[in-house]
């Protein structure tokens, strides 16, 4: 896959990717520590924080104003919007750590859905290398649910300007956005995430500009991987037909009576080299996303769309110095270099929020 979703002769066939994520989109589906880290450049991996985004109220509507970027801080400032980002792409030594098992683990029962922040990291699973038949071997994800089934949606109740039924519908649409951004077969092979973009408030102009630019001409300042999961099928192919997920939605009343929904979800993608071979590595992506379902009498919006308030992303084994707009997992035991100075991080630890100030080429303790 080239930028923009174009294919070349070595692309993985559509039917393979469709089968890979059919179960995921529908909600159907350890080893030694790595020696070398692989991550986006240190400066691009720094934690960036700005003021919370705010939807544009009617009286303050100023459409069409451009995004203003601070190159030094690598953050985006927009009218009524400021993205809170974390980008940590951790390195793995695929020859030593990748491994988990397929759709079931005879030694362990599937985990119950996550309903609140866990108090401790997952325990270690029995070791072993990943294989095409058992791509989750040795990973905590072996006991996670498949696709949207791993994303807990809380019971709805009337909140702010919305009735119980409206809150229930907004929660479902928020999960639809997560699926369209991170589980859709076409998006995962590089297509434009049309269904996801259609759920975003088109009047939030600076967000629209960032999304459009990042998908059309990705670079270090406009990275679609901060919002969307995408692979280059000329570089990686699916290992199995399941994406494992774990996380939850929560909600509260936001500003101007809006329904504010927070999503905290980790996605685990098993892939193998596009050119063939039986090596399997895992790309692990955790996303914290906050959206606002606004009262149209107070905020300029379109029916059925939300305003994006903030997003944070941790990526493991997605590629170092990668500005291609696609995850580029390391195969063959390659790494980003032995001089990395990042901290050791467990990508499966969900006991706290994505850490502020964490960045650089870190070392993943497991995959």
Give a description of the structure.
- A hairpin with a 7-residue loop joins strand 9 (259-273) and strand 10 (281-293).
- The chain contains 7 helices and 13 strands.
- It has one domain.
- The two termini are 25 Å apart.
- The chain has helices at residues 14-26, 42-45, 94-97, 164-182, 185-188, 194-198, 205-216, and strands at 68-70, 75-78, 81-82, 87-90, 145-146, 151-152, 236-238, 244-253, 259-273, 281-293, 307-316, 344-345, 363-364.
- The strands form 3 sheets. Strands 4, 5, 6, 7, 8, 9, 10 and 11 form an 8-stranded mixed beta sheet that branches. A 3-stranded antiparallel beta sheet has the order 1-2-3, with helices on one face.
- It is globular, with a radius of gyration of 20 Å.
- By secondary structure, the chain is of the alpha+beta class.
Short note summarizing the structure:
The chain has seven helices and 13 strands.
* Broad shape: globular
Tell me the β content.
15-25%
Oligomer description: single chain
Helical fraction equals 10-25%
SS class: alpha+beta
Cα-atom radius of gyration:
20 Å
Secondary-structure element order, as H and E?
A: HHEEEEHEEHHHHEEEEEEE
Average pLDDT confidence is: 77
Kindly report how far apart the N and C termini lie.
25 Å
Largest sheet: 8 strands, mixed
Question: If helices are DSSP runs of H or I spanning 4 or more residues, what is the number of helices?
Answer: 7
Weakly predicted, low-confidence segments: 1-11, 28-51, 59-107, 335-340
Number of DSSP-assigned strands: 13
Number of domains: 1
